[in-house]
Amino acid sequence: MNRHSFRFRSLFQKYFLVLFLAVVIPLATNGVSEAWFGYRDQQTTLDRLLGVEARSAAAKIDGFLDGITDQLGWLVQLPWSVEPDERRRIDALRLLRQVPAIVNLTLLDGTGRERMYVSRIGLNRTESRTDRSADEAVAGARAGRLWYGEVRYYRDSEPYLTIAIAGNRPSVGVVVAEVNLKLIWDVISAIKVGETGYAFVLDRPGRLVAHPDISLVLRGADEATLAPFRAIREVIRRAGADVATGRDGQGNAVAAAASPVAGPDWTVVVAQPLSEAFGPIYAALWRTGGLLLAGAAFAGLLAYVLASRMTEPIRRLEEGTERIGAGHFEHRIHIETGDEFQRLADSFNTMAAELATSQDRQERIAKLKRFLAPQVAELVDRKGDDGVLEGRSTEVVAVFCDLRGFTAFSARATPDEVMSVLSEYYDALGRIITKYAATLTSFSGDGLMVLVNAPVPIEEPALRAVDLAVEMQQSVQELIVGWRARGQRIGFGVGLAMGPATVGRIGYESRFEYTAIGSVVNLAARLCASAADREILADVAIAEAVKGKRALIPLGLRPIKGYDEKLPVYGMPFEERADATVTT
Fold first, then answer.
1. pLDDT number for residue 8
2. What's the pLDDT score for residue 372?
3. pTM of the prediction?
4. Which CATH superfamily is domain 374-583 in?
5. What is the DSSP letter of 530?
6. 158-206 pLDDT, tens per residue?
7. Whole-Å CA distances, 530 to 448, 459, 527
8. Phi-psi category of 327—alpha, beta or left, where left has phi over 0 and alpha has psi -120 to 50?
9. pLDDT at residue 11 above 50?
10. Predicted pLDDT at 581
11. What letter does residue 317 receive in the DSSP assignment?
């Protein structure tokens, strides 16, 4: 009796200890890892946030200055004549209206003499002929075509910058503009990182160009004021990383990121105190410690309850899992303890039922692969449900292609020649369609219909479809070179369009096809029919989606069969591969 009790107590203690540690150790590990990864995530988020804010501010300043220099460039296009240039004066006044940041403009001829001065705050003058060739701005513009001066302050309130641009030829002269930089101050003042984060701009020598506290900027070259800002910039430069840590003027530790403004050689710096940046992590550590203590107490209680009720449920679970693992999916584990063991048994029973269902599903998928496109069958396999093939409305790109002159070729060629051409043709296009994860819905003779973004969704379907069409043209044009060398006059055209369509499977019990129905399909087919050899024709939706990413050739309005009005059509150029040339 004593021996039996000793064994029971030993088993109880063992399970109690194991269960307690099994809960407490992962809980403690999770708490520590959460704290560590939380710190890393917060640091990564801070790095990304500060970097994005710095680059965004630099981009806005760059855009502001580039817009001004672009406008100024129009005033130095034509050479000066001896007579006063009224048209140039009108252009200068118009520029003042179009660019409110420009305060005044000075136009100099090729000899460096002032020919015109227009201003918002002063009197205009023309043909003063004052020699300004020795001015720093004029000399700088002539040396590098674009010159930026030092920042200065008008009436100690608003920052101004001098910009000078020289023409491509000496005879067109130089334009010098005084620009109000208040917009840059507005950009910097609007940047808020958390509650106390801020941004500022330094010029090349380290003078403040913009800061939310304008009084700091107005102190000019005061070394005591500028030293902390210069120190932060220097720390970032030495670190060679997006974000570095330093100390602000009050001695507080801050995280800062910088981004350059290339033209005037400025630096935008965004900073946030570390106490605020990592405040959530410190709070999370306290919460984690409290939860760890509560979890340890709960684990002790749970281990005590579970350790006394484990032997019989474990035996049943072991027996049941062995039978289910052997393939007896109809077996069920019966445990009615009203606790986790019963839920675990129910989970095993559910798993057995799902395995039986999965087995039936796999057999159905195997049948689907015999009559559906491979990528469609694979999608059904991944989803575990062929419901993805049911009819639905979605945006697709329809791609049609066929051979030009194939009917005439097939009429005069032998069946072996026709089948050889089609075999090479479909083999080349099939590899490309699979490569771009497109769906081949149908092919008839020499024509193919391909869908992009259905049923397999992809990012940027228009871009993927254009690349698909271009590679189709390149591959088939390589084949055409060989065919023409054998006297077979065949061409190849492609048409594609993007828009909403109804997609899904159609057919009957023993045969289904996946297809799309809608005006976008008809338009793609008509564009393909209109495409000549070596042409890729696309509609305006495709052109808008890939604009700036792929080359486009606007072909104007074209009559499309089946449409009452002419439609805008775009061509997609492509380059033939080097190995596609054959010498005869």
1. 43
2. 54
3. 0.43
4. Nucleotide cyclase, GGDEF domain (3.30.70.1230)
5. H
6. 778 899 998 888 888 899 998 887 777 777 887 777 777 888 888 888 8
7. 15, 28, 5
8. left
9. yes
10. 42
11. H
Collapsing DSSP to helix, strand or coil, 134 comes out as: coil
Collapsing DSSP to helix, strand or coil, 268 comes out as: strand
| SS3 state at 257 | strand
The DSSP bridge pattern shows strands 392-404 and 266-273 to be: unpaired
Instruction: Give pLDDT, residue 550.
Output: 94
Outline which parts of the chain fall under CATH 3.30.70.1230: 374-583
Which SS3 state, helix, strand or coil, does residue 154 take? strand
Unique residue bearing structure tokens 């771009």: 436
Tokens of 348: 């095993």
- The Cα 369–Cα 490 span in angstroms is 33
Query: What is the CA angle 503-507-510, rounded to 5?
Result: 135
Domain with residues 184-275, CATH architecture: 2-Layer Sandwich (3.30)
Q: Which CATH number, 3.30.450.20, 3.40.50.720, 3.40.50.1370, 3.55.40.20, labels domain 20-181?
A: 3.30.450.20
Q: Count the alpha carbons within 13 Å of 38 in the hemisphere toward its beta carbon.
A: 17
- Start-end ranges of CATH 3.30.450.20 in the chain? 20-181, 184-275
pLDDT digits (tens, 9 = 90+) for 282-303: 677 777 777 777 777 777 777 6
| Nearest-angstrom CA–CA distance, 252 and 584 | 78
β-pair partners for 102: 179
Structure tokens at 540: 């305006």
In the block, tokens 């019966």 appear at 334
Which amino acid is it at 486? R
* Residue 575 CB neighbours (<10 A): 10
- H or E segment at 410? helix 406-412
Q: pLDDT by residue (tens digit) across 300-337? A: 777 666 666 666 676 677 777 877 777 776 778 777 77
Question: From edge to edge, which strands make up the β-sheet containing 198-202?
Answer: 208-210, 198-202, 266-273, 253-261, 243-247
Mean pLDDT lowest among 80-84, 90-94, 493-497 = 80-84
Q: d(Cα 377, Cα 225) in Å, to the nearest integer?
A: 69
Contacting residues for 347 by C-beta, under 8 A, at least 6 apart: none
Comparing C-alpha atoms, which of 543, 533, 541, 530 is closest to residue 570? 543
For strand 491-508 and strand 536-538, is the pairing parallel, antiparallel, or unpaired?
parallel
